[in-house]
Amino acid sequence: MYRKELDNLIRSGTKISAIMLYGESHFLIDHYLKIFAQIKDANLLNLYHDEYDFNAAKAHLSQGSLFGDQNLLIIKNEKKVPKRELDILLEMVKKNPDNTFLYAYYGTDMKTSNKAFNKKSGGIEVRMFHPYANEAKTMLLQEAQRLNVQLDGYSATHLIESQNGDLGLAFNELSKLQILGRPVTSKDIDALVYGVGEVKIDQFINHLLAKKDFRDELHHVLESGEDEIRIVTAISSFVTQLYLFYANIKINGIADSRAVLGYKLPQKIEQERAQQSIRFKQHQYDSILTLLLENELKMKSSGKMDKGALLLATLIKLQSYL
Description:
By secondary structure, the chain is α/β, with parallel strands linked by helices. Among the domains are: about 5-125, Rossmann fold; about 225-320, no CATH class. Helices cover about 60% and strands about 10% of the residues.
């Protein structure tokens, strides 16, 4: 199913009892997961990453509801849940109208398990591609309206560009603009968002990738409210973007942000990304991205881990690859 069809189901109020969300845009996966998880007084079981246990999931969906509440099962994982286990969970949902099963898959294998979600099983699957520029702007304007932030189309585009096209970061920054209580201008965004948030993390990442001492910038980024997992994902996003520029230049001989990202970056940022991207080799990109993804998973998988210590160790090791 395409996202447009899913939006139509949501607008029509159609009950969705089982859905698999997967694809390239983790932001959109999380966005729709929040929408479907809004079930009042639900009997909820979250199984995130290494917490997944088939027997626990099955037991949760098999239990009856004493007070008419719904049993809600949410599985979030970068590893595929075996299809035979999904088949059983989907059958349990189909038999009991009080059950709802939300499966968010963050991995890169776009086949196999999603085949379990079909008309026969009563489930649907939706692949979340990165939104085009106009789609991203529309979604941001809708969220701004919900938060009573007076944002026009031009300012929405400026906000997204200030966050290097990361719609999730743009959504997060809307809370800073709520305090204005008037129409938001591009100058407001530069002052309240770009100048305070993204510049800090950009400066930190630039120092990191230039093999400079990054500790002061890291301290400021953490003090500004970013957590360790968010910092790792921001670095991953930044390095991935650099790699896309690197590949584009290798193939076409020029850097074109529209071809790489689906939207046009400001010329200055586009040139900076292109120059940075060719400083590294293929094997360095491979090592850096593998390191970041592995340690992001470690942070998400253990609630007792010292994430600050792991983050620092990760960044020191990352610099050793440069």
